[in-house]
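Weekly sync, protein design subgroup
Attendees: M.S., D.O., the rotation student, P.L. (late)

Item 1: inverse folding check
M.S. brought a backbone from last month's batch and wanted to see whether the design step gives back something sensible before we order anything. D.O. pointed out we never logged the input encoding, so this time it goes straight into the notes. Structure tokens as presented (228 positions):
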């Protein structure tokens, strides 16, 4: 298996097997460490982690040809809904040792798993908090370049906007993974996506793109937006 840089997103790689299939990967900043059982690949003296799109909405959005992925080396990222660190750990690989990922998670049980990851990937900061109330962790988070949100709660766009107003630099970017069934199971997902993007527009965001994440995630979409 060989590894080559992604043609569009710096810090993202493509691992090409003997079958010719290209799989997403990130360069592992903590060699030998696996977060969710992902395969590790050594190529030309460097270690890479395969990035599973059925486990990561960010990976899925890249494969669905999202126009931008505002996470790069040295960046400061606020990650809302980090869970056990599956995607957040790949974000940590991308921003590298000079970057930082502030990981907000609400569940104490899941936080224990996240802390294990953060202890190894030193650029991840675990924060046990409810993302609906950013004022409660404002002393722990610096101004960031990007806010990434993957939270299974109603009012997902409002939650993202509230955090962005407090922590995101002017002209910064956001990525919102909308889980339609967590907002309203009685509506068509497309209707929910439209309503949530309207919330962001009213709050001063420029919507760049909305990407449906099927077949990787049913009734999910990724919204790429810029904070004016």
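Designed sequence read out in the meeting:
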């Amino acid at each position: 298996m060989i590894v080559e840089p992604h043609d569009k997103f710096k810090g993202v790689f493509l691992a090409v097997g003997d079958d010719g299939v290209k799989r997403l990967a990130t360069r592992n900043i903590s060699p030998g460490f696996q977060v969710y059982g992902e395969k590790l690949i050594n190529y030309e003296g460097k270690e890479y982690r395969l990035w599973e799109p059925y486990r990561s909405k960010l990976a899925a959005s890249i494969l669905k040809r999202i126009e931008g992925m505002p996470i790069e080396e040295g960046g400061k990222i606020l990650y809302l809904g980090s869970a056990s660190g599956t995607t957040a750990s790949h974000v940590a690989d991308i921003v590298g040792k000079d970057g930082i990922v502030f990981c907000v998670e609400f569940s104490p049980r899941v936080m224990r798993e996240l802390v294990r990851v953060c202890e190894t990937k030193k650029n991840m900061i675990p924060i046990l908090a409810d993302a609906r109330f950013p004022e409660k962790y404002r002393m722990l988070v610096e101004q960031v370049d990007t806010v990434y949100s993957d939270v299974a709660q109603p009012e997902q766009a409002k939650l993202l906007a509230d955090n962005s107003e407090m922590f995101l630099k002017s002209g910064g970017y956001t990525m919102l993974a909308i889980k339609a069934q967590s907002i309203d199971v009685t509506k068509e997902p497309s209707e929910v996506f439209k309503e949530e993007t309207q919330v962001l527009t009213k709050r001063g965001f420029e919507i760049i793109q909305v990407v449906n994440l099927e077949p990787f995630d049913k009734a999910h979409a990724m919204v790429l937006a810029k904070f004016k």
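Discussion: The chain has a mean pLDDT of 96. DSSP finds six helices and twelve strands in the chain.
Action: P.L. to compare against the previous round before Friday.
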